[in-house]
Each structure stands twice: as structure tokens, then as C-alpha cells.
Amino acid sequence: MTPPAILFVDRDGTLIEEPPDHQVDALEKVRFMPGVFAALQTLRRRGYRLVMVTNQDGLGTDSFPQAAFQAAQTFVLDTFAAQDIMFDAVFVCPHFAADGCACRKPNTALVEAYVRSHGVDLAASAVVGDRDTDMQFAANLGVRAVRVRLGGTPEETWPAAVRGLTARRARIERRTRETEIEVHVDLDATAPTRIASGIGFFDHMLEQLARHGGFALELHCRGDLH
Hints:
31% of the residues lie in helices and 23% in strands. It contains six helices and nine strands; from the N terminus they run βαβαβαβαβαβββαβ. The radius of gyration is 22 Å and the shape is elongated.
């Protein structure tokens, strides 16, 4: 069986908008992020499995009752399920940062058992989140980090995340004592095409291959060409 590729997805600020008080404890505070439904549907079709990982400061205290959180959380999960978007697992850290727990992102204790028991393909997996702690969580877990946030750059949106996570591209570098070769191929783009092998006829043939094949190709060679 092929090891699963997992998207570890943050909730507040990534799946749903984060309210000014940073606490989603009522249904009227739930607003889904632009493009999130189409994005997750596409990513699931591409083979990603979804795991929600969220810090919820002080969950279970008088200021943030479990029942208030659960009502909003159930609504969020049911709404996604109605769009055929299922989460394999949901992990919630209820602690404050000052508590110094091991489960609060960017720490990884919350998901370590899941990763081990499911044989997760970390090289093919990613974290999607809005905060620097999500980016560090990805680094600590050893997976790719993708930032999605409201009011961010055009590359920090769900459509951009889909493009990045589903792109068919590769970059290979080979270095010896005599030669350095760098190749970048992107099957989902038509440009750029930049070929510099040092051999004119070979450059021309590769340019034609990329142009008529409809993909982007960059090749740079330096060193001994004989």
C-alpha cells in the first residue's frame, strides 16, 4: 500500500476566518475562508488526506467552554462533510502558550502517534496554515509549509495553495568536478523556456521539444562540454 500524503491543516485563519477576539465560540463567528471548499475538494481528488491540527487557547476554561467550541466545531465539520470533504483526524491543543505543553504547535507531539501508525509519507505531505507557528510546525514535522491567510499576498490564498500542491514540477542538479548541470521542468506551465547547454544544436532541439510539448524547461550547463 502506498504511504498516504497528508495535509495537516490549521483551522482558525486557514479553514475559517479568525475573529478579532481569536476565539470561535459561537456559530455566528464561523466564516469560511474564500476558496476553501473548491480547494479541498481538488486536493482530496489528487490523493491528499486531510488532518486538522488546531491550537485553542484555554479550551475548557470558564472563558472558553468546551460546549461553545464543540458547537462551532461540529458545524464546521458538518459543512465540510456536506461538500464531500472529510478529515481523517482532528487534533486540538487546549493549552495556553505559557503552559509549556508538548502538544501545542509548533510542537509535534499532537500528531506523532498518527504519523507513525499511518506510515505517513512526509516527503509528499504538507502543513497549510496562516501563522509562523504553522510554518515552524511544518519544519519540525519535516514536511512542506504552505501559507494561506486572509489579506495576504496572491500566493497566500487557497487557489494558489492548490496550484503549488498539485504542480507537476521537478528540479534536478548534478555537480561533478568537471560539470554543473541544473534542470527545471514544469509540466503545468508553458514558460519559461531557457536552454543553455553550450551546444547550439542541442539547445535548439530542447527548445522545440518544450515548445511543442507545451511545458516549461530550463537547462543550464557549465564546465567541460567536450
